[in-house]
Design goal:
globular, mainly alpha, 75% helix, single chain
Length: 177
């Protein structure tokens, strides 16, 4: 089990590992928008429904922009971005916990926090390649907003209810909580 910093230290100087992570990040950004629309927006929140749904749709649209930015980064590095066909180790442990708006937002908040931890490490690391830092520095404030919004749209009960799946997903990825 590794912290986000330990994980990054293990890939940042290995071109193949870093490229593979960037490919997976592209895949993750593309599928994040799809998951948000399929697993969260299919439910109606109890309060402020139109406002909250609009914010979540904004988040999905921003995830699509993140996919474009990471796709452009990959192309600049000579890699054609593509949605991957692969095992979804994290998501296989979490999406089954979504039963309503609050649990959907809780699962998303946990996932965004995991992603946010990694992005903060990447942006803060002095050894990060400039092109990678530039892209993730643009993504960082939006991911901070996403995590905060999903957490706000959830509840303490839903966050606790979905924590076990999140921890199992982290375990599958070899990450410490």
């Amino acid at each position: 089990m590794k912290t986000s910093q330990e994980w990054y230290d293990g890939i940042k100087n290995d071109k193949e590992k870093l490229d593979n992570w960037l490919k997976n990040q592209y895949h993750g950004e593309v599928t994040a928008a799809e998951r948000i629309r399929e697993l969260i927006l299919c439910y109606t929140p109890e309060h402020n429904a139109d406002n909250w749904r609009n914010v979540v749709e904004q988040i999905a649209a921003e995830e699509e922009v993140h996919a474009e930015w990471v796709g452009d980064l990959l192309r600049a590095r000579g890699i054609e971005p593509t949605k991957l066909v692969k095992s979804e180790r994290y998501w296989d442990n979490t999406v089954k916990q979504i039963t309503d708006w609050e649990t959907g937002c809780a699962v998303a908040a946990h996932a965004e926090k995991m992603r946010l931890d990694r992005i903060e490490v990447i942006c803060a690391d002095p050894d990060t390649d400039d092109d990678i830092r530039e892209v993730f520095a643009k993504i960082l404030p939006q991911e901070q907003f996403h995590e905060s919004a999903f957490r706000q749209f959830s509840s303490d009960e839903a966050m606790a209810k979905t924590l076990e799946g999140h921890l199992a997903g982290l375990n599958e990825l070899g990450l410490k909580p």
